[in-house]
Design brief:
mainly beta, five-stranded antiparallel beta sheet, two-stranded antiparallel ribbon, 9 strands, 0% helix
């Protein structure tokens, strides 16, 4: 943050596949999800503070299923990085911080059974926070 701070946000989605076996050795391509349910907001963009949030509510392509919902708020200063978020416990989630010299996994949640996907039919259920 020694230069004028800048925050670039862009939505990114990957291809979606369905597993046909428990081991997920056979997959079926379903398509690529829309970015229309991804809201990226800059709250502060100054030399000493970058603050942004992401709200995600995107469905699975070619399937009638509830949207995958998560949200987080992140704040970066000269001395700290703080992030807090919530998600609906399905599918598996990871939150990473990427920076010029590397990356760090900040949070992960792994689905452990098919029954976990019933969490998609409710309100956001899991919260997390990280401070560095």
């Amino acid at each position: 943050m020694s230069q004028p701070a800048a925050l670039s946000l862009w939505p990114s989605v990957s291809d979606t596949y369905s597993c046909t076996t428990k081991s997920c050795t056979n997959t079926t391509y379903l398509g690529t999800a829309s970015t229309s349910g991804i809201k990226l907001l800059k709250h502060s963009e100054s030399t000493n503070l970058l603050r942004w949030s992401v709200n995600h509510s995107v469905g699975i392509p070619k399937m009638t299923a509830p949207a995958i919902d998560y949200t987080f708020l992140a704040q970066l200063t000269n001395k700290t990085f703080i992030a807090t978020g919530q998600h609906d416990k399905a599918p598996s989630h990871e939150f990473w911080m990427n920076y010029p010299s590397g990356s760090k996994k900040i949070y992960s949640h792994e689905v452990t059974s098919e029954i976990d996907f019933l969490n998609l039919f409710g309100v956001i259920q899991a919260s997390w926070s990280f401070e560095m």
